[in-house]
Amino acid sequence: MIYNEIINSINEIKNLGYALSLLNWDQSIFIPKNGVMSRANVIETITKIAHDMLISDILYEKILSCTESNDFKNLEEFKQKEILKIKKDVEKERKKPTDLVKEIAKTTSLAMNEWEQAKKTGNDEKYLPLLNKIFKLKKEIADAIGFSDNPYDVLLDDYDENLKYKYIEPLFNSLENQLVEIINKIEASKKHIKDDFLLRKYDKNKQWEFGLCILKKFGINFDSCRQDISTHPFTTTIGEYDVRITTNISENNFIKGFFSTLHEGGHCLYELSVNNHLNSSPFATISSLSLHESQSRFFENIIGRSYGFWKNHFNDLKKLFIENLNNVTLDDFYKAINKVKKSPIRTESDEVTYNLHIILRTQLENDLINDKINVNSINDFWHERTKKLFNFYPKTKSESYLQDIHWSDGLIGYFPTYTLGNLISAQILNAMENQMGKVNDINDEKLINIIKWLDKNIYKHGSFYSSMELVKISTNKDLTHEYFIDYLKDKFFEIYN
Amino acid sequence: MIYNEIINSINEIKNLGYALSLLNWDQSIFIPKNGVMSRANVIETITKIAHDMLISDILYEKILSCTESNDFKNLEEFKQKEILKIKKDVEKERKKPTDLVKEIAKTTSLAMNEWEQAKKTGNDEKYLPLLNKIFKLKKEIADAIGFSDNPYDVLLDDYDENLKYKYIEPLFNSLENQLVEIINKIEASKKHIKDDFLLRKYDKNKQWEFGLCILKKFGINFDSCRQDISTHPFTTTIGEYDVRITTNISENNFIKGFFSTLHEGGHCLYELSVNNHLNSSPFATISSLSLHESQSRFFENIIGRSYGFWKNHFNDLKKLFIENLNNVTLDDFYKAINKVKKSPIRTESDEVTYNLHIILRTQLENDLINDKINVNSINDFWHERTKKLFNFYPKTKSESYLQDIHWSDGLIGYFPTYTLGNLISAQILNAMENQMGKVNDINDEKLINIIKWLDKNIYKHGSFYSSMELVKISTNKDLTHEYFIDYLKDKFFEIYN
Prior knowledge:
By secondary structure, chain A is mainly α. Helix content of chain A is 64%, strand content 3%. Chain A has a 3-stranded mixed sheet with strand order 1-3-2. The A-B interface holds A 11-12, 15-16, 18-19, 22-23, 26, 30-35, 37-39, 41-42, 44-46, 49, 221-226, 238-242 and B 11-12, 15-16, 18-19, 22-23, 26, 30-35, 37-39, 41-42, 44-46, 49, 221-226, 238-242.
């Protein structure tokens, strides 16, 4: 049957993807230094084979003969949707000119090197032409694939299917206004929160054990998962029932390691669950990066930085690190891990100010891809907007647009998923609380019920729905920034009186 | 140029091989339990793709048009040999009927399960028909590929190119007679060697550190290599300049872990070096499994179990494990690690008796593949031969033919490489000593000179020569058992007076 043949081909491509995940995982953790060059060749070979398989005429003809046959309507609806999803993905890939794809790979590879240099030295003379080329090539990709409104939409679609800039723009504008208001009020409160005890010496092994213990309370089954240490924490799926997470523990910064662990733990729960529910269907994957991020942020922030969580776990932590926390109360601790501090660096920002970075970056991406501004004006743009949003100027280029790796790697359209994830997580919390009651006393049982709710309402659907559809289905409302703003106000106005 | 196209294709296939090595490495060390099923699918997909690429008409036509063109003779000789080697490998694979290859994969997969059961319970009723089928299918493969004398030669060729049974048979017969003589003399000496101190508690971390320290003295560069722990130690190459070795350390058995480390260290030196010399040539691989084994045995036995090595290292070991070795002299230690003890189990045997197991197994393989005996007679054969070779009977089937995994995995023709490796290692030692003088005081400098000699005379050739050619070139003589017998006599008659 042609349906089975198509699914088999897609699963073969998925298997190549699993191999690539392992090659990358190993490269981030275990590879000996001199193995890196050869690893790049292995990754290139498999990526090329997987791509050739995806765009092959044989597969595409099968898909067409399936969807165009009279039998197609007799196929169960789920299977029809599977084939149509594959058709969309295949057609998108087939529209990309091979030479253009190669040119992008070559350019980003050069840009990655120059970006590292530029970030170190602050001199972006050699980097800017490459960045310019990346945006130009990405625009060409968008042209080749086609769009109705905005070429940026084609790039957004890579990370969040069917997402449009005309949808994000007003959402982010309202969000910006309200965030700035909240930050002004917090600053006006002049309240000082002590957090020096978070930066004392925390034994690495004990940090590791505590993090692992919480992941186990999330119900993560370590027969289907493992955690390792890497420089930059990440989650990757290497096979059905084989999800790998990493964390990074720093001896003098408790929150960095712990919240990384929770963040990846959230990703892990989602990845593990889609496989449990959908197994070898093409829908056995996350709906979008926004939704993925909503889950990591949910566990990192909404759970992990909540009073209700620490009410149940602070004593355990205190026992482990009595030397640092002896005179620290639950209240002190809760406030310290939620301290609001404007930073020029996105990844060092708190729940409130973080999204301003994304709003800035998203607007810039859209302007660049639409030739509204030129790469040479990025720094001016960044200065002006930073002043407006944060009321300071970045001191160096590594504090401005050079701080993040994404663009050099060709990831344009990726940034908005971080803030969308935050908005989704708060809207999900609201829906959850409407059904389960307030999530304000997070003991082990409550934790399991929360995860059961997510499993039933979010995870089990895999990528059957786009994230905006899934938000609507699981929360009964279109995505809005209001739940997130309410969440911030409730939480931070209390902390800052 | 067509030469480059062929080499590029072969290197793509090699890259898939590297990915498979990583998938297997990870499965032996890190995979979470539930990831195993999905991993099997990933391995199957990539194996199939690599095989399809190797036997593709496009590649074969390129090879033919290269070798048959008038330009071929103008190609430098090395490149001609590369293409002819590829041609031979491709033609061998193309001759294997696809259905037969699939049938073997299916049968061995079933046989692996049944073998595990049979080994545990001693009941081989369900296993024997599968084993019978494996031999039958392997015979069919040999028929499909073709042979002049003996179908077994086709299987031997998989592990040691151009090796023939008519060459092994007389070599192993003479070896058998002389080994039995040596063992009789050792037994007649009635000398008791104390070795209880090897079985005391040796701290695992200190064992790991000591092993690593010796590997570093071998000049192994850990920027191109890493060592981990696995149940069964192995060496695998995951990329150019990326060789992974594993060891297994047991707290109550010092020699097991340490000699595993040296064994894999020998494999590692060889694998690392062929890449250094031949880089992306198809000859950048070991010559054969026999030669590979000659290197692991060289470092495990000829170096690692020599008086000259411990003369220079026993004091370091004693300092580390003073609680166990306080009253043990260098002489006691040397004799203990060389104690001769006949065992029904191959992997637990010493340097002298080990080869009798291989001689028995090789003869049995040849008889089975040539239908001289039937699988139902294996046990009778094993009993009779064990009695003759060892003067005892195996107590159970897991002490007889069920002890090893190889046949269940379809590895027929693999066993002789172990003994050939032993013979080669002794012949290499002789050639080395003719040039460098006696290897009897193995300090750090001597160790480096030994490895330089191997690098220059063996490793740098990669698989350009077959192992028998390479033995001839590097030692000036065809392979014989005499150097090995002389080595054993010198060493063990002294130990046993």
